[in-house]
Amino acid sequence: DAGVIQSPRHEVTEMGQEVTLRCKPISGHDYLFWYRQTMMRGLELLIYFNNNVPIDDSGMPEDRFSAKMPNASFSTLKIQPSEPRDSAVYFCASARSSKTYTIYFGEGSWLTVV
Amino acid sequence: SQQGEEDPQALSIQEGENATMNCSYKTSINNLQWYRQNSGRGLVHLILIRSNEREKHSGRLRVTLDTSKKSSSLLITASRAADTASYFCATPGGGADGLTFGKGTHLIIQP
Predict the structure, then answer these.
(1) Which of B50, B101, B104 sits opposite A100 (nearest CB)?
(2) How far is CA B86 from the centre of its chain?
(3) Residue B1: is its pLDDT beyond 50?
């Protein structure tokens, strides 16, 4: 299996621009998670989906952030407008539901907003 | 909110020595997991220990869980340079299905 695939791997954008991060989960996984990692706050769960339906978005920082999962093999995380404090590594991860499951992470999207 | 906290934040040892990292958490759990993150990469699952287990082994990894103290430890024996990475403990997060991660222990193995 190819694992969780994220794009872009690196993005540098100017403040105010729209940023779209993309994720393809592992085939057959029914959970998809978006995490953000910074030095100050560590890994934060932003939002997760189960069977393409958003279940908990309480970690999304503010209305500038939105996420969608139009089908089982694709999800996007959008930031509009972007701000310098959004600079972080954004990870997509997926899992197959079971009572105890492990999460498989992508390699991350490194976002720098200048 | 963070459930687990790793200790120490950073650890530097010589190759061949054993490395021990600890994790403390706040609420009752049914399992605890350890992940590794190499620089610039995503997290990789290492091992899962259930609440009814006290110790688990996987290769050079040994994990313990003390539910009475709400703590876990990860021991890496006979460390190698390739073990240099950050190590995170993860617990089921509150009512959500996602895992909650600590801030990690940054392990450096000196050759």
Answers:
(1) B50
(2) 9
(3) no
